[in-house]
Amino acid sequence: MSAELLTVPEAMAALKISRWTLYNLIRSGELGSVIVGERCRRIPASALDAYVTRLCEEAA
Protein backbone atom coordinates (compact mmCIF):
# COMPACT_ATOMS: atom_id res chain seq x y z
CA MET A 1 0.00 0.00 0.00
CA SER A 2 1.37 3.38 -0.95
CA ALA A 3 -0.47 6.36 0.52
CA GLU A 4 0.86 9.81 -0.19
CA LEU A 5 1.30 11.84 2.99
CA LEU A 6 1.52 15.62 2.76
CA THR A 7 3.28 17.91 5.18
CA VAL A 8 1.31 20.74 6.77
CA PRO A 9 2.84 23.34 4.39
CA GLU A 10 2.05 21.12 1.38
CA ALA A 11 -1.57 20.68 2.49
CA MET A 12 -1.83 24.44 3.15
CA ALA A 13 -0.57 25.15 -0.35
CA ALA A 14 -2.90 22.58 -1.95
CA LEU A 15 -5.96 24.09 -0.27
CA LYS A 16 -4.61 27.66 -0.37
CA ILE A 17 -5.43 28.20 3.31
CA SER A 18 -3.51 29.37 6.37
CA ARG A 19 -1.84 27.13 8.94
CA TRP A 20 -4.44 28.26 11.50
CA THR A 21 -7.32 27.22 9.23
CA LEU A 22 -5.70 23.86 8.44
CA TYR A 23 -5.20 23.02 12.11
CA ASN A 24 -8.80 24.08 12.86
CA LEU A 25 -10.02 21.65 10.18
CA ILE A 26 -7.93 18.89 11.75
CA ARG A 27 -9.10 19.70 15.30
CA SER A 28 -12.75 19.73 14.22
CA GLY A 29 -12.40 16.36 12.50
CA GLU A 30 -13.26 17.77 9.07
CA LEU A 31 -9.80 16.87 7.74
CA GLY A 32 -8.05 13.66 8.67
CA SER A 33 -4.39 13.54 9.65
CA VAL A 34 -1.87 11.19 11.20
CA ILE A 35 1.08 11.63 13.52
CA VAL A 36 4.32 10.07 12.32
CA GLY A 37 6.82 9.49 15.10
CA GLU A 38 6.35 11.77 18.07
CA ARG A 39 5.64 15.13 16.45
CA CYS A 40 5.35 14.96 12.67
CA ARG A 41 1.78 15.57 11.51
CA ARG A 42 0.96 14.42 7.99
CA ILE A 43 -2.23 14.71 5.97
CA PRO A 44 -3.07 11.79 3.67
CA ALA A 45 -3.75 12.95 0.12
CA SER A 46 -6.93 10.85 0.25
CA ALA A 47 -8.16 12.91 3.24
CA LEU A 48 -7.59 16.10 1.24
CA ASP A 49 -9.50 14.64 -1.72
CA ALA A 50 -12.38 13.57 0.52
CA TYR A 51 -12.57 17.02 2.12
CA VAL A 52 -12.69 18.80 -1.24
CA THR A 53 -15.30 16.33 -2.52
CA ARG A 54 -17.49 17.03 0.54
CA LEU A 55 -17.17 20.78 -0.03
CA CYS A 56 -18.21 20.39 -3.67
CA GLU A 57 -21.18 18.20 -2.75
CA GLU A 58 -22.36 20.67 -0.09
CA ALA A 59 -22.06 23.55 -2.55
CA ALA A 60 -24.21 21.77 -5.15
From TrEMBL:
Organism expressing this protein natively: Nonomuraea polychroma
Lineage top rank: taxon: Bacteria
Lineage: Bacteria, Bacillati, Actinomycetota, Actinomycetes, Streptosporangiales
A single MF term (Gene Ontology): DNA binding
Segments forming domain Helix-turn-helix: 5-54
Protein name, UniProt field: Excisionase family DNA binding protein
Alphabetized Pfam families for the sequence: HTH_17 (PF12728)
